[in-house]
Amino acid sequence: MTTLPEMTTPEITLTDRAARHVRDYLARHDSGIGLRVAVKPAGCSGYQYVVEPAERIGEGDHVFETRGVKVITDDRSLRYLAGTELDYVREGLKAGFRFHNPNVQETCGCGESFNVSTPAAQEPGDR
């Protein structure tokens, strides 16, 4: 059994901008019941975020309602995402989600992957 890192708050939240973007996206594409946020082993630093429309809520999923949007994550990803706030930002021609994750200790140079601050959150074979 893996020991979970100490969490100040388990919620995953969205800023007003991010919530508005998700609501607009789901309405335009007439798909999904919310936003699925997950973590997968990848990249130079160890883990990468996955963001996609959620089609369903699975057994063992955690659901957080924030600013009228359901944010859904699986049990394993929650260990890495607890306390995270997602913002939606535009910088020049680029637009996308920015993660404010209190569990991140380091990110790679390209900013596409991260590593967590506590080895207790990692399971053997995660990397």
SSE inventory with pairings:
Blueprint lengths: L12 E2 L1 H14 L4 E9 L3 E9 L7 E5 L2 E5 L1 H7 L3 E7 L2 E7 L3 E4 L6 E3 L11
Parallel strand pairs: 1-6, 2-5
Antiparallel strand pairs: 2-3, 4-5, 6-7, 8-9
Structural commentary:
This protein has helices at 16-29, 75-81, and strands at 13-14, 34-42, 46-54, 62-66, 69-73, 85-91, 94-100, 104-107, 114-116. With 127 residues, it is of the alpha/beta class. It has a single domain (13-120), classed as HesB-like domain (Hypothetical Protein Aq_1857, Chain: A), CATH 2.60.300. It has a four-stranded mixed beta sheet with strand order 3-2-5-4. Strand 4 and strand 5 (69-73) form a beta hairpin. The longest helix has 14 residues, at 16-29. It is globular, with a radius of gyration of 14 Å. The model is unreliable at 1-5 and 119-127 (pLDDT under 50).
Number of strands: 9
How many domains comprise the coordinates? Answer: 1
Give the CATH H-level superfamily: HesB-like domain
Strand proportion, as a percent range, falls in 35-45%
The whole-number mean of residue pLDDT values reads 84
What form results from the Cα inertia axes? Answer: globular
Distance N to C terminus: 17 Å
Please name the CATH topology.
Hypothetical Protein Aq_1857, Chain: A
Regions with pLDDT < 50 over 5+ consecutive residues? Answer: 1-5, 119-127
CATH architecture: Sandwich
**Helix count, DSSP H or I runs of 4 or more residues:** 2
CATH class: Mainly Beta
User: Sheet with the most strands?
Assistant: 4 strands, mixed
The helical percent reads 10-25%
Which structural class fits the helix and strand makeup? alpha/beta
Biggest sheet strand order reads 3-2-5-4
Tell me the Rg in angstroms: 14 Å
SSE pattern, N- to C-terminal? EHEEEEHEEEE
